[in-house]
Specification:
7-stranded mixed beta sheet; disordered C terminus; 5-stranded mixed beta sheet; 2 domains
Length: 553
């Protein structure tokens, strides 16, 4: 459609929830809306930088990223009124408006027996928004003002939203007068919420009323390391902004929710940065946070310029995507691969389309992704496949894994990793509701496998690997992870490093160079092999601040 006719003129002022000054600092050119993307605004900016540095502490197998788009239309919007008191680890209760990144607050975590206990955590992000206000009143007189989709921890029901969402066909759980909230309560909360103490509900924390106040107001939310915090004496969920947002050049402020920033000049800026004498042609990864081949790329066509800039400068690069729009640029990527190392990765978790569409509605079907893998390989390019996430009791049977790996091998994948489901806060509640509705017999098993929280128990991970390893070997993949010297194909035996289900599949990532330079005989820049220099993991299960599913999916 004609986007040119959807420009928001300068006289319109700032869009709801966004400051004009903030967008101006980003180099705003214009804002575009289109019926094709309901409730999403695209802010076209002239960027000042393109390359983003990844901290060494993340242990990612790449040091630099490029994100032509900033923002996500699926952002959580949990938030509280500014005067809400948050319990600090030193016992003070501080208004949420006064918190800052790095502050030490009280959260909760599950122990080995699956019991929730108080724990010390830190504030990772803080931002404001504007939402319709709802007031929750408890039996002891405590009142909390929050948005309708904010969640509190209810005894016996888990995380429950403040109010019903009439547009949610799934029927999300919401607070009623039958709920008792978990928390230390008001007053001397620090005594009842010391680190290690059990988090329990009290009679005084019974919900007596939930009221729609009928107006919007400024609200605030934070992200913590545990995914929750204590607000006005009750355990409160937070918006789970991925810790990679900041160092991958995404923010969690007002321009994040349903606002996509498009770096219109990203290719020119990138060319200038790559031309600097200090640039060492280190590998660059694309698609590590926002998918560069999301639907908007069909209009903006930023990737061809980025690919050209990287190839012309002799910089190896990799692209991780679910988007079939990648096929448009395969000739350009194949040309780039004659000059630099290139890695391509696609995620595919299902052999059955019906189940896939039930879990991932609106995403490309398994057949479409398999066709994408074939197209990539037909273009002479490597393509690693992340079989992720594997769903216990649903997609971990030998039959399903065999059919999926057969299809992946038949499509020509150069490497495969198999990663079990991770249930992070914000995803956990939605998924378990879906599971209870669609596959109720599996709910009890999930309670056992994910008793410690986000990650499956080590016993399950090892069971899955024991099941998968021979299936991979039978199909010529041999190992789910990178090999020390196997180049892009991952299909012949050599020295393997220990398996880790956070590994990246062979062919998907161009790793750091051990002996970079120009190979005159090959006519391209060499980086010591596509996989040479691969670190111990690709963001495995125990790495602070980033798991592989945060980076890829």
């Amino acid at each position: 459609m004609r986007w040119e006719g959807q420009t928001v003129g300068a006289d319109d002022g700032a869009l709801p929830g966004l400051e004009r000054a903030g967008l101006a600092r980003l180099g705003l050119v214009r804002t575009v809306r289109t019926p094709e993307f309901a409730d999403v605004a695209f802010h076209e900016v002239l960027a000042k930088s393109a390359l983003s540095k990844v901290p060494a502490a993340s242990k990612m197998p790449f040091g630099w990223t490029v994100n032509p788009y900033r923002g996500c239309s699926h952002a959580c919007r949990y938030c509280l009124s500014p005067e809400t008191l948050v319990l600090m680890t030193d016992g003070r209760q501080v208004p949420i408006r006064d918190l800052r990144v790095g502050d030490a607050v009280v959260g909760t975590e599950l122990d080995e027996q699956g019991r929730r206990r108080y724990a010390e955590t830190t504030v990772l992000a803080w931002w404001t928004t504007r939402r319709r206000a709802h007031r929750v009143t408890l039996a002891d007189g405590t009142r909390v003002v929050a948005s309708d989709d904010h969640r509190f921890l209810s005894d016996g029901r888990g995380w429950v939203h403040v109010a019903r969402d009439l547009t949610d066909l799934r029927g999300r759980p919401f607070l009623t007068t039958h709920d008792r909230l978990v928390g230390p309560g008001p007053g001397d909360s620090a005594v009842r919420a010391a680190a290690g103490m059990a988090a329990v509900a009290g009679d005084g924390l019974r919900v007596t009323a939930v009221e729609d106040l009928g107006f919007e107001q400024d609200m605030i939310d934070i992200t913590t390391g545990t995914g929750d915090f204590v607000a006005n004496g009750v355990v409160s969920h937070n918006c789970f902004a991925r810790p990679t947002h900041e160092y991958l050049d995404l923010d969690a402020g007002r321009d994040f929710d349903s606002q996509v920033v498009v770096k219109m000049n990203v290719d020119a800026v990138l060319r200038a940065e790559l031309a600097r004498p200090s640039w060492q042609r280190e590998p660059v990864a694309l698609g590590t946070n926002t998918d560069p081949y999301q639907r908007a790329e069909g209009r903006y066509r930023l990737m061809p310029g980025i690919i050209g800039a990287l190839a012309d400068s002799g910089t190896p690069f990799s692209i991780l995507t679910k988007g079939t729009l990648l096929r448009r640029d395969l000739p350009l990527i194949a040309e780039a691969a004659r000059r630099v190392e290139v890695g391509l990765g696609v995620s595919l978790a299902f052999a059955d389309e019906e189940l896939q569409q039930s879990v991932e509605p609106g995403t490309p079907t398994p057949r479409a992704r398999l066709d994408l893998i074939r197209a990539v390989r037909a273009a002479g390019l490597p393509c690693g496949v992340m079989v992720a996430p594997v769903l216990p009791w649903l997609t971990d049977s030998r039959d399903h894994l065999r059919r999926l790996l057969d299809a992946v091998a038949d499509a020509g994948a150069t490497g495969v990793t198999v990663v079990p489901l991770h249930l992070k806060p914000g995803t956990r509640e939605w998924y378990l509701q879906w599971l209870e509705r669609e596959h109720p017999r599996a709910v009890a098993g999930y309670g056992r496998v994910y008793a410690r929280g986000t990650y499956a128990l080590e016993a399950y991970r090892q069971w899955l690997w024991d099941r998968v390893e021979p299936l991979l070997a039978e199909r010529g993949f041999g190992s789910s992870g990178h090999r020390a010297r196997s180049g892009a194909t991952g299909r012949y035996a050599d020295e393997l490093r220990p398996h880790d289900d956070g590994d990246y599949p062979a062919g998907s990532i161009v790793a750091a160079a051990s002996a970079a330079g120009h190979d005159g005989r090959a006519g391209r820049w060499r980086t010591g092999g596509a996989l040479d220099g691969m670190p111990v993991d690709g963001g495995g299960l125990e790495v602070a601040a980033a798991g592989i599913e945060q980076v890829l999916f």
